[in-house]
Design a protein that fits this description.
The protein has helices spanning 3-22, 44-53; strands spanning 35-39, 59-63. Helices cover 34% and strands 11% of the residues. The chain has a two-stranded parallel sheet.
């Protein structure tokens, strides 16, 4: 798999897994043993690549829809003039 598309697939797969954890009923319609093919209608290059790689049988196609923006988990960062001499826990 193309490195760029592999990275995108990994990101989408992680998000899809999170979605299934919070919406387990969504996964009930996915047949056991089926290969899940994640598609992104907003990225035709990726989607076409995935469709070419997809198996002819036993595949379930999931349109991932739209991704929410990634948010930072940082809380109260600050700029310091120089690093401390010693870092303590």
């Amino acid at each position: 798999m193309n490195e760029f598309y592999r990275a995108k697939f990994n990101d989408l797969f992680m998000e899809f897994t999170r979605y299934l954890i919070t919406h387990p009923d969504f996964g009930e319609d996915i047949p056991r043993g089926a290969e899940v093919i994640l598609l992104d209608r907003h990225d035709s290059g990726y989607t076409n690549y995935m469709l070419k790689q997809a198996p002819k049988h036993d595949a379930v196609f999931i349109d991932v829809g739209k991704l929410a923006p990634i948010r930072s988990r940082l809380r109260k960062p600050k700029i310091i003039s120089r690093p401390p001499a010693v870092i303590t826990g």
